[in-house]
Amino acid sequence: MKIDRHKKDPRFKIAEKEAWIGIGLVLFNFIWWYGFAYGMGSGPAEEYTYIFGLPAWFFYSCVAGFLIMVVLVTAAVRFLFKEVPFEDRSEGGDSE
Amino acid sequence: MNWEVVAPLLIFLVIIFLIGFWSSRQMQSGNSFLQDYFLGGRQLGGFILAMTMIATYGSASSFIGGPGVAYTQGLGWVLLAMSQVVTGYFVLMVLGKKFAITARKYNAVTLIDFLKERYNSKWVVWLSALSIIIFLFSAMAAQWVGGARLIESLTGLSYISALFIFAASVMVYVVIGGFRAVAVTDAVQGAIMFIGTLILLIAVIVAGGGISNIISDLSAENPNLITPYGFDGGLTPLYVSSFWILVGVGVVGLPQVAVRAMSYKNAKAMHRAIIIGTVVVGSIMLGMHLIGVFARPILPGIEVGDKVMPMIAMEVLPPWLAGIVLAAPMAAIMSTVDSLLLLVSSAIVKDVYINYIKPDASENTIKKMSFSVTALLGVLVFLMALSPPDLLIWLNLFSFGGLEAAFIWPVVLGLYWRKGNKFGAVASMLTGTGSYILFHTFYPNALGMNTVVLPIVLSLLTYVAVSLFTEKPSSAAAEM
Q1: Which listed site, A47, B141, B350, B438, has its alpha carbon 20 to 30 Å from B399?
Q2: What does the angle CA A11 – CA A17 – CA A19 come to, to the nearest 5 degrees?
Q3: B163-178 burial by CB neighbour count: b if 16+ within 10 A, else e?
Q4: TM segments (chain B) (predicted)?
Q5: What is the pTM of this model?
Q6: What pLDDT tens digit does each residue of chain B (480 aa) get?
Q7: What part of A 26-45 touches B (C-beta under 8 Å)?
Q8: Domain boundaries, chain B
């Protein structure tokens, strides 16, 4: 089953989708990072709460934020990214 | 001389040298010399790809300059540094498969090859080659200075002898081994950076009596140190966020990083590299900058930021272990320098010489040219680094921003936006780099953001406006 497309390499559609996923992840990463850092860290330092000895804003923004990004990036690559061949240059001859 | 510290460093240099030498012997079986020498024959696997990207990107500023600033600024600077986690996944995801496939279609060996085929313009090639040569050459000089200073401070050798040792050990494996040697040594260097960071972080926490203890010492000294705003409250949210452009998403525009996005074997390698890269770059950035902050209560009163990292390592670790850990910044510097050296050499040999001066050069001539240009460049950088400029971190960031502003849109929009054309690309490169230099000189940190932000916005507007205005896609572009 192969649909012939002369205009656009079907692999590029996959590539473009994955690029958008990258942009989405960056936006999420930024909002998480900014939200916890300045949402929780803006008050006076005397009123900070602490997690594992670190100020809570720092723990959530930088430590938890990093771990969450690792999980999300791994999930995105595992479940959303597709393996495509790079070398192939024939248009209609290959069999899938 | 403290032999217990120096011995692990020497062993490290010898190992790197041997690996570089071994990789150069792998090369002979390859088909095209140019593809092999400058791109490793597009055969990188996931682990090496991740490591070479991180090691190329992570430089003296991640291991020496950055922790030094964090020592002064406190947790606010760690927050800023964490914007770099993005580089672990964003570059490979955005350039991604499209770049890998297109580069193969074009048979591109360098970033400039890609631009040349995409835009069909001599001007694009000349401008890119020129900016790569100028900016990366100065970045290289700054890194060599950093490397030599580090050897100087660790061994007590004179600056010139330190510089000589550093230059000689890098040059040998780059010149004979090319990209494969660079990538494989980068993998080893990246692993050392990762392990060194973890060891030192743990040792610093133990020496400081636990995290809670360190944090309360810091807040007793100056509560600002544990806020996101820096020691004097000077780090505004806008300023800190603007670093997401400079050291986060803008890294896509760095030629030394982008060229790696066409060097991998297959989609599987890319997928693995994204995951490994994110984990490793995040750990290194978080760890190294935290080390800088945590060092403060343990060793108060260090005046020169660049000395924080070497001094804290010697303070909290037994000498032999300090030697291993201090191989990490050395590795970071070497792995950046080797890539830059090869990239500048490829710009001269492949992009200028073969493209325009002697297109019919024989394989043998190309081979000789590649080796000798690479060696000559090394000697030139060595001479420049003899009278070193100060403030390593800023010099490094300068060439960073100039290149990002030049390349980010011609590369990214060249890939994904069919209507982008050569006029847009040339105008955008000129605007990007030109306005970066102007802003840097006359109005640094304009509107409270890092200097790079406005030039990147301006070059985007120029690219889009000029491309639309001169619209008439060439046949090559229409295929995209």
Answers
A1: B350
A2: 105
A3: bbbbbebbbbbbbbbb
A4: 6-23, 44-64, 76-95, 123-145, 157-179, 191-215, 235-254, 274-299, 319-349, 369-387, 393-416, 423-443, 449-470
A5: 0.89
A6: 678 888 888 888 888 888 887 877 776 555 678 888 888 888 888 899 999 988 888 877 788 889 999 999 999 999 999 999 999 999 999 998 999 999 999 989 899 999 999 999 999 999 999 888 878 887 888 788 888 888 887 788 888 888 888 888 888 888 888 888 888 888 998 999 999 999 999 999 999 999 999 999 999 999 999 999 999 999 999 999 999 999 999 999 999 999 999 999 999 999 999 999 999 999 999 999 999 999 999 999 998 888 899 899 999 999 889 988 888 888 888 888 888 899 999 999 988 898 888 888 888 888 888 989 999 999 988 887 887 555 444 555 567 888 999 999 999 999 999 999 999 999 999 999 889 988 987 888 888 898 899 999 999 999 999 999 998 655 555 455
A7: 26, 29-30, 33-34, 37-38, 41-42, 44-45
A8: 3-393
Q: Which residues partner with B96 through β-bridges?
A: none
Most B CBs within 10 Å: which of A8, A26, A51, A79, as the mutation test of the B interface? A26
Show me where the domains of chain A are located.
Answer: 48-82
ipTM: 0.89
Question: What's the maximum distance between 2 C-alpha atoms anywhere in chain A?
Answer: 70
Identify whether the C-beta of residue B77 lies closer than 8 Å to the C-beta of residue B293: yes
- Residue B318 token pair: 């037994």
Q: Going by CATH, does the domain composed of B3-393 fall within 1.20.1730.10? A: yes
- Listed by number, the residues of chain B in 99-138 with a beta carbon closer than 8 Å to a beta carbon of chain A are 100-101, 104-105
Distance of CA B221 to the CA centre of its chain: 35
